[in-house]
Amino acid sequence: MRSDGLIKLIILTVVMIMLYGQDTVVLAEDRIDCLICHKYRGLSRVDEQGNFRLFYINNDLFLNSPHRRIECNECHTDIEEIPHDKVDKVDCTQQCHIVEPSGDGYFSHKTIAETLAKSAHGKLDADGNPKPHQEDYPGCKDCHDQPLYRPLSAFKGVAKHGVSMRSISRCKSCHESGNFAKDFYEHVTSRLHKTRFSLEITEVCAKCHQDPEFMKRHELDDVITTYKHTFHGKMLEMGSERTADCIDCHVVEGESNHLIESKDVVTSSIHKDNVGRTCMASDCHTNASPNLAGFQTHVTYDREKYPLQFYMLVFFKALMALVMYFFLAFIFFELMRRLFPKFAFFKDNTPHHIADLGEQDQQDKEDKS
Ligand code: HEC
Ligand code: HEC
Ligand code: HEC
Ligand code: HEC
Ligand code: HEC
Ligand code: HEC
C-alpha cells in the first residue's frame, strides 16, 4: 500500500515537472483532463487559515453524481490552461452546455437563485437595499455542503413510494442500448424522494438557526431545540422519515424548496391564515380539522411571547417543589422518630411504661393458665 502511494507521488511529481518544463499548455479544446493530477488521493495542503484542504477528486463518485455530464472546466470556468493558477469560486448559476428538454434552453440554476432571492434568505429587502448582516445569508453551498459528489443511490431508499430498481428491466425491453434506461429511470425516481434525510435538513438549518450569536443578531428564537421537543422532532430523532421536517412546514406545497418565507409574508406557509392548509398538505394531516393550526412548533418560555406556556411552567415548577418538599419534610420527621424514639417536646409525668408492664404480667399469667 505504502509503496503504491509513493509511486503515485513520484508520478505526480514527474507529471508536474514535465508540465512546468513546457510553456503553459493552452488548451484549444473545451476538454481538459483534470484528473491526471486530481486523481491522486494525496493532493492536499494546509491553507493560510490552517484548514486541511483535499483536492483529490474521486472519479467514481463524480461519475455517479448529478453533475456527471458536466466537464470540470464548465464549472471551474477560469481554468483555461494547465498548470493552473489559483482558482476562483464557482458560480452555481452559470449556464452549462446541457439543454433542458422541456424548454430547449441551456440549463442553469439561475431560477433557483431567483427564488432564493425572493425568500426570507434573499440578501436584498423589498426595496432592493442590502439587508443588515449580509454575511449571514446563505448561498448555495451553505445548504448544499460536502460531500459535493454524493452518489444518488448511496443515500436514498430505493423501495420508497413503490419505486423499485427491478423496474429498470421493464424499460430495457424497449430501451436496450447503453445506460439510457437506467439514467432516465434514476433521474426520475430519485427526484421523487427527498434528496436528504430529514435529520440532515435540520442540521443544515441548525448551522445558522441554532448559532447563539446569529439568533441574537436577528432576534430569532432557537427554533431547532424547540422543534426537537415536539412530537415531529422526536419521531425524527427515532429514525422516522415520514414526519414533518423544516421544509415540509416552511415551504408551501408545490412550491420550490427554496421559497422559505417569514410568517409576516401573506403567501408564506406559516402565515397565520395558511398554517391550517400547511398541516393538511398531502401526505400529512389531510383530514385534520383547521383547529390543528393552533399547534405551536417553536414554543419557548418567553413571558412576553408565550405567556400561557410561561405561567404553566411556573405553576408546574411550584407544584413540583411543593410536593417534593412536603414529602421531604415527612421523611425527615420519620427519620427523627426512628433515631430518637423517646424524644418528646412535652414530657408526660405518668409512668406509662410501668402501667404497660402491669398489663404484660396479666397477659403472661393468662397464657400460662
Ligand atoms: C498539472 C496538474 C493539475 C491539473 C491538470 C489540474 N490541476 Fe487543479 N490543482 C492542482 C494542484 C497541485 C492543486 C493544489 C494547488 C494548491 O496547493 O493550492 C490544484 C487545485 C485545484 C483547485 C482548488 C484551488 C483552491 O485553492 O481552491 C481546483 C478547484 C482545481 N484544482 C480544479 C481543477 C480543474 C477543474 C482542472 C481541470 C480543468 C484542474 N484543476 C487541473 C493540479 C492540477
Ligand atoms: C457542477 C459544477 C462543478 C463541476 C462539474 C466540478 N466542480 Fe469542482 N467544485 C465545484 C464547487 C461548487 C466547488 C466548491 C468550491 C467553490 O465554490 O469553488 C468545487 C471545488 C473543487 C475543488 C476544491 C476542493 C476543495 O475542498 O476546495 C477541486 C480540486 C475541484 N473542484 C476539482 C474538480 C474537478 C477535477 C472536476 C471534474 C472532474 C470538477 N471539480 C467538476 C463545482 C464543480
Ligand atoms: C436555505 C438552504 C438552501 C439554500 C441557500 C439553497 N438550497 Fe437548494 N435545496 C435546499 C433544500 C432543503 C432542498 C431539498 C432537498 C431535498 O429534497 O431533500 C434543496 C434542493 C435543491 C435542488 C434539487 C431540486 C429541488 O428543488 O428539490 C437543487 C438543484 C438545488 N437545491 C440547487 C440550489 C442552488 C443552485 C442554490 C443556490 C442558488 C441553492 N440550492 C440554495 C436548501 C437550500
Ligand atoms: C414498450 C416500449 C417502451 C418501454 C417499456 C419504455 N419505453 Fe420509453 N420510450 C419508448 C418509445 C417508443 C419512446 C419514443 C416515444 C416518443 O417519442 O413519443 C420512448 C421515449 C422515452 C423517453 C423520451 C426520450 C426523448 O429523448 O425524448 C424517455 C426518457 C423514456 N422513454 C424513458 C423510459 C423509462 C425510464 C422506461 C421504464 C420505466 C421506459 N421508457 C419504458 C418505448 C418504451
Ligand atoms: C447560512 C445561514 C442560514 C441557513 C443555513 C438557513 N438560514 Fe434561515 N435565515 C437566515 C437568515 C440570515 C435569515 C433572515 C433573518 C432576518 O430576517 O433577520 C433567515 C430567515 C429564515 C426564516 C424567516 C425568519 C423571519 O425572520 O421571519 C425562516 C422561516 C428560515 N430562515 C428557515 C430556514 C430553514 C428551514 C433552513 C434550513 C433549510 C434555514 N433557514 C437555513 C440564515 C440561514
Ligand atoms: C410542524 C410544522 C413546523 C416544523 C416541522 C418547523 N416549523 Fe418553523 N415554524 C412553524 C410555524 C407554524 C411558525 C410560525 C409560528 C411560530 O412561530 O410558531 C414557524 C416559525 C419559524 C421561524 C420564525 C419565523 C418568523 O417569521 O418568526 C423559523 C426561523 C423557523 N420556524 C425555522 C424552522 C426550522 C429551522 C425548522 C426545522 C428544525 C422548523 N422551523 C420546523 C412550523 C414548523
Topology:
Blueprint: H1 2-21, E1 25-26, H2 35-38, E2 44-46, E3 52-54, H3 59-63, H4 72-75, E4 81-82, E5 99-100, E6 105-106, H5 110-118, H6 140-143, H7 168-172, H8 180-191, H9 198-209, H10 212-218, H11 223-228, H12 231-237, H13 246-250, H14 275-279, H15 307-339, H16 352-368
Antiparallel strand pairs: 1-4, 2-3, 5-6
The structure holds heme C (6 copies).
One heme C (HEC) is lined by residues 16, 19, 32, 34, 36-38, 43, 45, 55, 72-73, 76, 79, 82-84, 86-87.
Describe the structure.
This protein has 369 residues and is mainly alpha-helical. Among the domains are: 1-90, no CATH class; 157-192, no CATH class; 307-368, no CATH class. It is built from 16 helices and six strands. Strands 1-4 form a two-stranded antiparallel ribbon. Strands 2-3 form a two-stranded antiparallel ribbon. A hairpin with a 4-residue loop joins strand 5 and strand 6. The chain is elongated. The model is unreliable at 17-30 and 147-162 (pLDDT under 50). One heme C (HEC) binds at residues 16, 19, 32, 34, 36-38, 43, 45, 55, 72-73, 76, 79, 82-84, 86-87. The site of one heme C has 19 residues, from helix 1, helix 2 and helix 4.
Mean of pLDDT = 82
Bound molecules: heme C
The secondary-structure element order is HEHEEHHEEEHHHHHHHHHHHH
**DSSP E strands, number:** 6
The radius of gyration over CA amounts to 35 Å
In percent, how much strand structure appears in the residues? under 5%
Instruction: Estimate the global geometry from the Cα principal axes.
Output: elongated
Low-pLDDT stretches = 17-30, 147-162
Largest sheet: 2 strands, antiparallel
- Tally the helices: 16
Widest sheet: strand order? 1-4
* Spatial gap, N to C terminus: 101 Å
- The share of residues in helices is 40-55%
Helix/sheet category = mainly alpha
